[in-house]
Amino acid sequence: MSRDLESQGAVQTNNTSDPAFTARLTNMCLCVAGIMGSLVLYGLLQERIMTQPYGENGELFKSSAYLVFNNRVIAIIIAVTIIKFKGESLVNAAPIYKCSGISFSNTLATFCQYEALKYVSFPTQTLGKCGKMIPVLILGMLVLGKKYIWKDFIIALTVTIGCVAFVMTGDITGHKGHDDSFYGLLLMGGYLFCDGFTSVFQEKLFKGYKMSTYNQMLYVNLCSACISFMMLLLSGELLPSFSFAIEYPAFMFNSLALSFCATAGQLVIYYSIKEFGALFFSTVMTTRQVVSILLSCIIYLHPLTIWQWLSALLVFGALYYQEVFLKQRSGHGHSHGGHAGHNHGPNQENEKSVPLK
């Protein structure tokens, strides 16, 4: 017995000193740092731009469509650069009209996400994003014909109850006051539906056509850029937005940093799913949401009641249970990326499906 334990200890010691193990662990730590760094900073910049004034006159930036457009232009430039570097074709692998459907829902989702910050606090917005499990469940069954186990519905219900409790047990308003918070919640509802639609149809697009991630990234962002540009023209916000960027260099820097963080997040997410699987990715993303809320409360002084903290704990506890315990038992949480595309939970990303910001 003692010899068996000694031999097991020797094997573990050899594993930890194995160069391949060390390289993989280092790679995993870099992925965690990349996701946490880019997306946590993305969240903080998002709140800075939409809720904090610029200049001596304390002027607020008002155009969510401009931020969407800016994000898409940066993503297009980076996607083209990567495609040329990898020697891939720039020709669209899927019909433009199918990419435009995803682009339209994605543009609306991002617009609602930014616009909601005018009316609700960042912790409310971030926690509310967890509620997208419900529309993904419904759309997954109706569009992709997926089947979910009863535990998926229990977890989705628990997350929804936690989100509702968070809203009902404390102040959720942003900088505009109580009268507008209901409109902010409606915007978050629009975000949840549009984002769920985007995820489901993005997965369907990959299954229907042989295309690389970067090809999809290019054409979905290209269509989104056209849509957001038309929104800017029709709303009359195009010239005022550019004037604001010229007048306030700090805003220009923040908006460009926001776009680079969003695009970097997309790329690190894809690499992480491919190398380490959807379980690793989902766990890191859930942790990122927790960190984002904590930092937002510290930096921007959002007061949360004890009941709101307990509600958030309920939501993230349910998500961690789903991502870690359920998937380990069902065999879906393999560390190798080749298995990442076979998960059937409602909060999963397809192996090649990159969340667009």
Features:
globular, mainly alpha, single chain, 12 helices, 357 residues
Notes on the protein architecture:
With 357 residues, this protein is mostly helical. Helix 2 packs across helix 11, helix 3 packs across helix 11 and helix 5 crosses helix 11. It has twelve helices and no strands.
What is this structure, in a nutshell?
With 357 residues, the protein is mostly helical. It has helices spanning 2-17, 19-51, 64-86, 96-116, 122-129, 133-143, 150-168, 181-208, 213-235, 238-247, 249-299, 306-330. Helix 3 (64-86) crosses helix 4 (96-116).
Alpha plus pi helix count: 12
Helical residues, percent: over 70%
Give the helix/strand class: mainly alpha
Main sheet makeup = none
Uncertain segments are 5-13, 332-353
The SSE order reads HHHHHHHHHHHH
Strand percentage lies at: under 5%
Mean pLDDT across the residues is: 78
The total strand number stands at 0
Q: Give the end-to-end Cα distance, rounded to a whole number of Å.
A: 54 Å
**Global Rg:** 21 Å
Global shape:
globular
What layout of secondary structure does this protein have?
Blueprint: H1 2-17, H2 19-51, H3 64-86, H4 96-116, H5 122-129, H6 133-143, H7 150-168, H8 181-208, H9 213-235, H10 238-247, H11 249-299, H12 306-330
Helix pairs in contact: 2-11, 3-4, 3-9, 3-11, 4-8, 4-9, 5-11, 6-8, 7-12, 10-11, 11-12
